[in-house]
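User: I've been trying to design a sequence by hand for this structure and keep getting stuck. Would you show me what you'd pick, starting by listing the structure so we're on the same page?

Assistant: Good idea, let's start from the same input. This is the structure you sent:
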């Protein structure tokens, strides 16, 4: 007589064996998880993810990229807690809001998860939380350098366009810029949506005559800002600059419509931590120092050399 139970026993045994084999094999693989505040489709963060993906492919590492759908610190904190509970070999985080994220990061470190902080948070906070190192640039000092460059041009009336007010790194960029310029610089509250951002820039410029320089704190604000100035007939008349790069920003810089783009080299923020954690798991080679990736000023003379790289998502 046909026995379903007799048929299933060897099949279940085979399935269990395959599952055991799979778990044994994957246990030897390095697993790195990124939890950032920036979505993988964002012009800036897509480059970070590309760096992560390229490193994972080259080294044979399992890497995952997670981010809230919007700038949501409560959701990001939950993601960090969940990832830490899954015990990855390495956790990479950004910390745009120390009050909201310090607890989850500290808990991950306490649970024995090695952590690298990228982009935002800075060196001091990184080491206070027990993370291994910080990769990125000092955003306030980068802003100071930007302000000093514009001050040298004799400019005294500027505005800082911030597409994500409340993100401490972007706030620091505006504050540093004001210090470097040596005058009060108003902050225009922007948004991620490019159409709304463009409209806000148009409205601001119409309401504030005499603006000589517009600083954007990222590509999400810079590209709509350039479009707004074009529509107003102010391209080339009002000077501009931005943090971060994109093909559009680099072309505008090469064409003389923008003074410079400040390069944080975020591809390295994706690539290098994967390599670090893989070296640690395989050979117990531990990273021991912070890794500054910027700032670098890409100007009209140097922009053409990196446009193609930006189109490939490497810069």
């Amino acid at each position: 007589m046909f026995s379903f139970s007799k048929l299933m026993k060897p099949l279940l045994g085979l399935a269990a064996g395959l599952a055991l084999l799979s778990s044994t094999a994957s246990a030897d693989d390095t697993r790195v998880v990124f939890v950032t505040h920036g979505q993988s489709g964002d012009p800036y963060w897509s480059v970070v993810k590309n760096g992560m993906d390229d490193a994972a492919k080259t080294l044979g590492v399992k890497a995952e990229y997670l981010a809230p759908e919007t700038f949501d610190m409560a959701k990001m904190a939950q993601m960090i807690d969940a990832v830490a509970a899954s015990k990855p070999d390495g956790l990479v985080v950004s910390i745009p809001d120390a009050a909201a994220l310090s607890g989850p990061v500290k808990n991950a470190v306490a649970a024995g998860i090695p952590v690298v902080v990228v982009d935002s948070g800075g060196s001091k906070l990184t080491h206070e939380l027990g993370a291994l190192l910080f990769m990125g640039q000092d955003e306030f000092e980068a802003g100071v350098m930007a302000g000093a460059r514009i001050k040298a041009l004799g400019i005294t009336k500027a505005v800082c366009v911030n597409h994500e007010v409340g993100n401490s790194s972007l706030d620091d960029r505006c504050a540093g810029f004001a210090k470097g310029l040596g005058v009060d610089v108003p902050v225009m509250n922007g948004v991620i949506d490019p159409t709304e951002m463009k409209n806000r820039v148009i409205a601001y410029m119409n309401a504030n005559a005499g603006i000589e320089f517009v600083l954007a704190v990222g590509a999400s604000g810079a590209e709509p800002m350039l479009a707004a100035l074009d529509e107003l007939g102010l391209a080339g008349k009002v000077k501009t600059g931005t943090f971060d790069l994109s093909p559009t920003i680099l072309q505008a810089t090469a064409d003389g419509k923008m003074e410079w783009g400040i390069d944080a080299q975020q591809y390295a923020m994706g690539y290098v931590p994967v390599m670090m954690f893989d070296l640690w798991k395989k050979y117990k080679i531990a990273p021991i120092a912070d890794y500054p990736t910027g700032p670098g000023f890409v100007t009209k003379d140097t922009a053409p050399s990196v446009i193609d790289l930006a189109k490939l998502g490497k810069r």
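That's my pick for every position. To get oriented when you compare it with your attempt: The longest helix spans residues 4-27. Confidence is low (pLDDT under 50) at residues 1-25.
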